[in-house]
Structure formats: C-alpha cells, structure tokens
Amino acid sequence: MAAIGATAAPAGEENASAALRWYVLLVMMLAYTINIADRYVMSTVLEQIRLDLHLSDGGVAFLTGVSLALFYVSMGIPLSWIADRYNRRNLLAISITLWSVMTTMCGLSRGYMQLLLARMGVGVGEAGGTPSCNSIICDYFPAARRPMALTIFCLGAPIGAWIGADMAGAVAHAYGWRAAFLVLGIPGVLLALLIMATIREPKRGCLDVIKSEDDPTLMETMRFCLSQKSAVHVMMGSGVGALWGWGLMWFIPTFLQRTYQIDVGAAGAIVGPIHLVMGIGASLLTAWILGRPSYTDPRKIVYLLGAVTAVATVPGIIAIYTHNLTLATVSLWLFIPGIYFYIGPAFALGQNLAPPKMRAMFSAIALLIANVFNLIVAPQGVGMLSDYFAGPAGPDAASLRSALLILAPTGFWAAFHYFMAAKTIVEDQKRAIGHV
C-alpha cells in the first residue's frame, strides 16, 4: 500500500462531475459503515462476553468502551495532523485495513487480555478514518452543499449499527460471539483496496474562498478553534449528544435481554431494524431538509438540531423507565432516529467553521470530545453505577435501569449547546471559509 506522504496529482474537484462527487461520497459512506459496524458489534454481544469471561458490568464496560477510546482519542490528534498535511486517501486506506484486521483479531482472541489488546488496535485504526473522510468530502462539495453531503455520509451510522446489531446478533446467536467479529473483519480490507484503486487525493481547499498554503501548528489550530465560539458549542452539542444517545445504545441490547428475558438474537432483532429503517429515514430526511435553499443559513441548522435532540430525549427516558416491552419498543422507534439526526449536520458545521488546513484537526477535536463522552464516560459510568445499584446477587435489570435513567436526560444538555451556537455561527463561518 502506498506511503501516507505519497503525492498525487490534484483531481481538480472544483470541476469534478456530479458522478465523481457522488461516487467518492458513496465510498466514504461505506468506510463509515464498516467503522460503525466494527465498533458497535461489541454492544450486541456484550452480555455473552460478560458471561463467558465472568465479568461485572464495570469490567465489561472497560473492555468495551475505555479500551477502544483510550487509543482512539490519543491517536486521533496525531493522525489528523497527518491528514491535514499529507495524502488523506492513503491514510484512510491504511486505517481501514488496520481496524478491520484488529476486528478479526477480536474474534480470534481466547481470553480477556487478547481481546483487550485487539480492541485497542481497533481504536488506533478508527482514529484515522472519519477525519480523513470528512476532509476529502469537503473538497468535493462546496460549503452550501456540505451539510447535505455529510448527512449522506452519515448514513453509514444506521447501516453500520444495523449490521452490528441485527446481522451480528444473528451470527452470535448461531455461532457464538467470536464469529460475529470474524464476519465483520474481512470487508474492510476489500474496501481499502477499492479506495486505493479508484479514488485520487483531491486538491485541498479547492472549493473555498479563503485559501492558505501555510501549515498551521497544533497550537494555532487549537487557539483558532477556541476563538470560534459556535464551533465550541457545536462540538459540545455533538459530544454530549454522543454521551446521551450512543451512550444509551451501548447497553440497550443488554437491558432488553435482562429486563424481558430474551436472547441476544431477539434483542438484536428488536434494535437492528430500528437502526436500519429509522436511522436511514432520519438521515435522508435531514439531507433533504438541509438541501433546501432556506437551510443555507447555519442558524436554522443548529436550531433544528437543538429542537430534535430535546424532543427525542423524552421517548429515550420512557424506553428505559417502562416495564412493558411493547411500549419500550415503540419508544425506541422514536428515540433512535434522534441519535442519527445530528451527526451529519454537526460534522458539516464543524468543517465549515474551520479553514481547509485545519479541517481534519477540527474533526479530530470534535471526535475526541464525543468519544471521551461516548466510549469512556458513558459505558464506564453506566457500568459502575449498575454495579453500585446491584444487590448481593450482582448486576441485574433493575440496577442497569437505574444507571441508564441517570444518563437518559442528558439530551437536554446537548440541545442547550446547539441553541447557544446560533449566536455567533454566521460570523464564525465567514471568518473560517469566507462565505456562508
């Protein structure tokens, strides 16, 4: 595979055909799909792993989220620094190969330590994926079209979650939890080869008014980011949104299994179709809304994100509080779309608030915040709270319900940050890229 720093002739994306733009967007979406599937298969087989390895809720939470997050977060900044300076296409292909191979190693592990090390490897690989994808897409679509394009990109989240829940749940039920990891590892290597063969490194910043040949230092990027008040609020909104929505989703399959005495396949069959149908539906609806001329104003976008997040918080609370499986399922059909609605617009807003040579780093900063909340605070916090609320017999449905009910209202906190971003987002976007 080519070296990360290898040069490629600029693709002239300012004059690229619509077919080329959409082909690149589709391939980037597939990369994100595999990213999410490889990450969230763990939540589907969480209870099987806990029982097989004789772990507490806190112990399996560390194996699940913290082990991946420590390396995802620590490697995100240096890999994004590389993406802002060198060949993003090559970095993306190498990253996909690494996390796919390490996902396969999760399935080949025979003990706690082997699974822990493989999970860490998944985190290292995934750290180079999303920032590279975001930056590449922004050089194929102009600023006004980026919210729509990155929302299409984020269709990978519901499709990947469906694969990691429904398909992986069925495989795990039939063949055991290790088989679920083996099935998901191979496609990523094939996609990496496709990227190397068919996609060229685009000319950086070719569709923006403000252009710079200078390479900003890490500290310059951090100072500029902090000076963009709306960027800070958008990053916090998406970060807390990840704590709220994806934090709950870590334990929803386990919660359903314990509360309603169903197996891993049945739990995956409940959650998987919701991810697929409502996740895709929410993403497509978002893309359609943001593609309308009236939504070129970024203030309308953050107001929309805040409103949807606040409304979706209510059925999320109901899904955890109720003891009725039918009501819980209906509530999940209303709650889960809310955890997809914000992803694409938040990515796009962050990219439009960053100059071209800071985009991968802005993406990495946003992902750092989101993944500290989502992969460290949420699973570890819920796991420890569940152990705390548990009786002498150990964690059960009641202890997990109590822990999740503490997390469920945090969607209102995320909505607050989106509303605050509206105050300065127009001025901040002009300052970053020269136009709204």
Task: Summarize this entry quickly.
The protein has 436 residues and is mainly alpha-helical. It has a single domain, classed as MFS general substrate transporter like domains (Growth Hormone, Chain: A), CATH 1.20.1250.20.
Could you give the distance between the termini? Answer: 38 Å
Describe the oligomeric state of these chains in a short phrase: single chain
What would the average pLDDT be, to the nearest integer? 86
User: SSE string, helix = H, strand = E?
Assistant: HHHHHHHHHHHHHHHHHHHH
- Given the helix and strand composition, which structural class is it? mainly alpha
CATH architecture: Up-down Bundle
What value does the Rg take, in angstroms?
A: 21 Å
The largest sheet is:
none
Put simply, the count of helices is: 20
Strand content: under 5%
Protein name: Major facilitator superfamily (MFS) profile domain-containing protein
Organism: Novosphingobium fuchskuhlense
Subcellular location: Membrane
Keywords: Membrane, Transmembrane, Transmembrane helix, Transport
Describe the protein in words.
It is a single chain. The chain is built from 20 helices and no strands. It has one domain (13-433): Growth Hormone, Chain: A, CATH 1.20.1250.20. It is mostly helical and 436 residues long. Helices cover 78% and strands 0% of the residues. Residues 1-12 have low confidence and may be disordered. Residues 24-425 form the Major facilitator superfamily (MFS) profile domain.
What's the helix and strand layout?
Blueprint: H1 18-44, H2 46-53, H3 57-83, H4 88-108, H5 112-127, H6 130-138, H7 146-153, H8 156-175, H9 177-198, H10 218-227, H11 229-260, H12 264-290, H13 298-321, H14 325-335, H15 338-341, H16 343-352, H17 359-389, H18 397-407, H19 411-421, H20 425-433
